[in-house]
Amino acid sequence: MVTSKMEMLADDNASETLKPLVFRLHENAPAIIREVLLERGWTEFDQKEQDDTDWNLYWRNSPFPMTDHHSIKPWQRLNHYPEAVRITRKDYLARHLKRMKGAYGSTLYEFSPVAFIMPNDYVKFIAEYSKEIQSVGRPSYWICKPVHLSRGRGILIFQDIKDLVYHCTVIVQKYISNPLLISGYKLDLRLYVCVTSFCPLTIYTYEEGLVRFATEKFDLSSLDNVYAHLTNTSINKYGASYKTFKEGIGCGCKWTFSKFRSYLRIFGVDDMLLWQKMNNIVILTLLAVTPLPEASNCFELFGFDILIDDKFKPWLLEVNYNPALCLDCSIDDTVKRKLLHDIVELLNYKQVDAHRQNEMPGSKAVRRQVPWRRTGQSTPEQAPGLLSGRKVSTCISAPQTQPALQFARGSIHKVSSPTRKTARAHPRETLTSQLREKMNKPKTSSQVKTEAKNKQLPAAHSPFISAQLSRWSPSPEICNYKLSTRPYFLSDKDQMPTRQVGGFVLIFPFNEAALQASKDGTDVKSIIKEINKLVSKQNSTGQKKTKSV
User: Fold this and answer.
1) pLDDT tens, 212-228?
2) How would you label 179-206 residue by residue, b for 16+ Cβ within 10 Å and e otherwise?
3) 8 A C-beta contact, residue 161 and residue 144
4) How many helices (H) and strands (E) does the chain have?
5) Engineering a disulfide at 526: which of 129, 184, 404, 517 sits with its beta carbon 3.0 to 4.6 angstroms away?
6) Phi–psi pair at 196, nearest 5 degrees
7) CA–CA distance from 99 to each of 94, 116, 153, 227, 514 (Å)?
8) What's the rounded Cα separation, in Å, for the pair 334 and 8?
9) What are the C-alpha distances in Å from 295 to residues 289, 315, 504?
């Protein structure tokens, strides 16, 4: 009798061990997210069958209500940070960068073209426009973008002010008229950036990314040709030259970063220095919006669009909220699928998270609900740091996965009925800035039944990772910590984030001084000093390389 009870308990424990992680998708979430998570052995949240908190990752295209941030559980992650829209609206970004340039000088913040927000800055723009005509004899080229639109919609490039026409709030910027061209085609870079915390500020950039080409040759005499001046895939895929073979570029309109960097090395360009400059742009841009409201167990994936000019200077064009994860070509699939796999690794799920309970089976250690507070408020005693090791569910086998993936791909063809929308409260300042949230709950889908065994995934190897950052799987006792900080991205007891996870490389904090300055309220002034030192060192190294060549 005792033996049978022990066997029953063992079976119960085994079933707990095999419990998969659960993802929850808001409607219109990209199909590839479902595919990747199913490939990893996750199951999809079923609202009819499961408790409302019985999920590990909630992914949506719009901001979460603050109630979701307040009620977050230790085993859960949200894919948006509160108020991240501060740098993804074109007018907000321009204001923040202008403020930082005034506070810390134009030497660091010279990576963004001169910008005017219309109609408020119309008089200032006219003054700048007239001054250029008097000094140079001709006006510069300008680009006009609606602040609330994306994917190249509503963009106008002009030289004569008579051509400037707008019907909503727009941003007018100096147009970079000397872009780097490959075989005559303009290009820009889509750099993926993941922020796992804004306090302390923790920034990862992805090593691989997309190089996006215009599909017709650059020509300043034809400013209204969007296929020559805009690199947005959403526009160029409809161009006549999209599918044709273009000399030096090939078919389509995309390369990977790897191919682009190889191309630069062929011509003796220091691609490492270029990437360091791009990383500096990312750090300085994100510093411009700190502090944000502090929230636990969330992250933000940004798409930084960067243009390189013919002197190899990088320029920030804009920062994208919800960078596109649709698959327009094989290069998209190669880059974005691995990107999503590495994001899951970066979120550092542990075996205990699969239980989705405040109390571990067989243990009295309770994981407290995560508090939410604004930067600067006092916090409880900080949690001990955790290494980035974790156990996740094994990917289900191909026969099991295939029906689920077919369902995932088929679901994107369904057209949802119109739903009532309710206006959000922020951003509050401008009339065109209201972000709307769909109030309907996620669609119910058949829950994928799987019993995938958990296994230890190998750690990401990097020359930057020291022996102290070796990964490990936490014991149940590790659950007895206070979640007053975001522990999932921490690596050691000094709370230094892991240097590299998959293709994600830590770019901030980049040293101990930057780490300390980002704790307990970001000390921007001290961080700027450290960045100045870093930039000086990078420039010195670059000059030495140039002389040796």
Assistant:
1) 999 999 999 999 999 99
2) bbbbeebbbbbbbbbbbbbbbbbbbbbb
3) no
4) 13, 21
5) 517
6) -90, -15
7) 9, 13, 27, 34, 21
8) 45
9) 15, 31, 22
Q: What is the number of structural domains in the chain?
A: 1
DSSP class of residue 368 equals P
End-to-end distance of the chain based on CA atoms, in angstroms? 81
Q: In 149-270, which ranges are continuous DSSP H helix?
A: 226-229, 233-236, 257-266
Cβ–Cβ < 8 Å for 271, 542: no
- Calculate the CA 306 to chain-centre distance: 14
Find the DSSP H helices in 156-307: 226-229, 233-236, 257-266, 271-287
Which of 226, 197, 207 has its CA nearest to residue 81? 197
Element spanning 102, H or E? helix 90-104
Counting Cα atoms < 13 Å in the Cβ hemisphere of 69 gives 19
Amino acid at 334: T
Sign of CA dihedral 56, 62, 63, 65: negative
Answer yes or no: are the C-beta atoms of 282 and 205 closer than 8 Å. Answer: yes
Q: Which residue has the tokens 């060549």?
A: 549
Convert the pLDDT of each residue in 77-135 to its tens digit. Answer: 999 999 898 899 999 999 999 999 999 988 899 999 999 999 999 999 999 999 988 88
Dihedral, 510, 516, 520, 523 alpha carbons, nearest 10: -70
Kindly report the backbone phi and psi dihedral angles of residue 537, in degrees, each rounded to the nearest multiple of 5, phi listed first: -65, -40
Long-range contacts of 534-537 (CB under 8 A, 24+ apart): 534/280, 534/510, 535/108, 535/280
Quick check: helix, strand or coil at residue 335?
A: helix
- Asked whether residue 38 is assigned to any structural domain, the reply reads yes
Instruction: Encode pLDDT of 318-372 as tens digits.
Output: 999 999 999 999 999 999 999 999 999 999 898 888 888 865 444 433 333 333 3
DSSP string, 283-326: HHHHHTTPPPPB-SSB-EEEEEEEEEBTT--EEEEEEEES----
Please tell me the pTM assigned to this model.
0.76
State how far the Cα of 313 lies from the Cα of 307, in Å rounded to an integer.
8
- Beta-strand runs (E) in 55-141: 57-59, 77-78, 115-118
Residue 277 phi/psi, 5-degree rounding, is -65, -40
- What whole-number distance in Å separates Cα of residue 244 and Cα of residue 331? 16
Q: Which tokens hold the place of 364?
A: 């009295």
Which candidate, 231, 252, 106, places its Cα nearest to that of 180?
231
Q: Does any domain span residue 32?
A: yes
State the sign of the Cα–Cα–Cα–Cα dihedral 322, 329, 21, 205: negative
Question: Residue 545 — pLDDT band, cuts 50, 70, 90?
Answer: low
Residue 357, domain member (yes or no):
no
Domain residue limits at 60: 22-82
Whether 361 is covered by a domain: the verdict is no
Neighbour count for residue 297 (Cβ, 10 Å): 22
Main-chain phi, psi angles of 463, to 5 degrees: -65, -15
